[in-house]
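Now for a concrete sample entry.
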Amino acid sequence: MVQCFIKRDKSKLTFHLFLCLSPALMVENGKFLLSAKRTRRTTRTEYIISMDADNISRSSNSYLGKLRSNFLGTKFLVYDTQPPQNTPSSSSSALITDQTSRSMFHSKRVSPKLPPSGSYNIAQITYELNVLGTRGPRRMHCAMNSIPASSLEPGGSVPNQPDKLLPGPLDESFRSNISFSKSSLDYRFVDFSSTRFSEMGMGVVSCVEEEEDQEEETSFRPLVLKNKQPRWHEQLQCWCLNFRGRVTVASVKNFQLVAARQPQTQGGTAGGAAAPSHPEQDKVILQFGKVGKDMFTMDYRYPLSAFQAFAICLSSFDTKLACE
């Protein structure tokens, strides 16, 4: 996994992502990758994501995209300035635009419309109502509209994305169409919460074009990530996840994401049963957790990019009025 850490500045409402240059958890030095600034509005919260550590604005040439939440902080949309490649959502008929997304949060379908520049919806994050409050772990699902579920299958790949992290310009390495590969890690306990999570059908963008678009949508299944279920530790009396030393402070923000089981397509098991688990689907793809005051670790692997992983982690910082 690629090991990173996030520094939060509450006074400036900013977040900075760094690549770890040392195995130590509490370090002040690292390679700067991305930054984000939170802006609160009447009905939503936005996080502007940039490659510039100081100039974090949509007007900057370093602007990469943004994360937008609904009023309750339970649903988030991730926008990229670059369109996803070779997916149904890369066509104009399947894209949720920045302008229409405000009224389409609960809709499965959108009318064909060419999105404005820099407003390509590449992911949707949904948090479940948490009946246990802060005593248990949050439940979350992430629909990655630009990543096919087949990317985790043998021989699978993500369009225009290398299988391994290769040397190259930083601005190319952290767009939504890139990633890497490495080894595995992580341990430690964390407070989380549980509740039953509804199926993520409402989060996946679909097309309204006739048979051609429906066939395309059937053949392309976006990768869906879900939080790994924690276990109750009797001695510690808390919900626990194994972060392998990368997380040291219990927090409701901490999480690990794995691939959700994909239902069988036609010709497979009847009744839409889940497909057999593949080893890649059991691996932790993204993990995030607290290690100190305003310090958090973020570790991710293929098929996510740093931009996508950072955006997902930013959603954990937002207040969730309906979840806790």
